[in-house]
Amino acid sequence: MSVGIRAWMVALAVLPWLGGCASDSASRNKSCLPCQAATVMPPVSNLYVIGFGDVLTVGVIDGQETLRESMIDEEGRFDLGELGRVRLEGQTILQASHTLGQVMKLPPERISLHVSEHGRGMIIVLGPAEGVQRLVPYRGPESILDFLRRIDSMRLCVALRTIHVVRPNVALGKAPEIFAVSVPKILEDDDSEQNLRLEPFDRVVIGTTWRAELLELMPPWARSLLLQTCKRCGIEPAQPPAAPLSVPTAVPTGVR
């Protein structure tokens, strides 16, 4: 194929994309607002439920140093040294502060407690390109909006109206659930119900746009040229799919 024909092919592919770039740039403040304040929700640390494998750091406010750092063991207990092993599994950070305060004979507001390492699973992200799967460390019950910002999906501006969270519910023995999420609805309508909190082993499915599909069909040289062109107007398309990760799948039966 001659260089001229190749150039025309790239031009035909780029023109509709550039049109999309213009519209995406105009609507960026509505669909991809990384700097806009999200729905006000309680701090993640206060809502987090402590479980096996979590590493906790305990100290005393106004104290000289950290009192203890230890992992929640198989019995759900935290080792406080001479004060014994205190059961904290199943408690939130606030509840655990009260429990530790009783053992240490201190008011709970003087207890400094936070999770140093979360040991209870991962979040599975599928998309935006077809076949792309990755594991993201679970950091407590953060909102879907905060999670998308953490994995940098807000910057990609891809299919933010068609995100789904699949919750397997295997440990609870319940049927899997699907939650449909619209990022623009969360931002524009301050919809806290849409901005749900993630749980360990949730699957976040990010929809594929027509741009990602077109990118997948292009030869490497055309893909490189297109990515460079779109970056100049502030759009970074989803990359083509990598080798898929082997992840057990659950068959969702209910849609919420």
TrEMBL record:
GO molecular function, one term: polysaccharide transmembrane transporter activity
Signal sequence coordinates: 1-22
InterPro entries named in the record: Poly_export (IPR049712), Poly_export_N (IPR003715)
Domain Polysaccharide export protein N-terminal residue range list: 44-102
Any Pfam family matching the protein: Poly_export
Keyword Signal: yes
PROSITE patterns associated with the record: PROKAR_LIPOPROTEIN
Keyword Signal found: yes
Swiss-Prot/TrEMBL keywords: Signal
The protein, known as: Polysaccharide export protein:: Poly_export
Organism annotation: Tuwongella immobilis
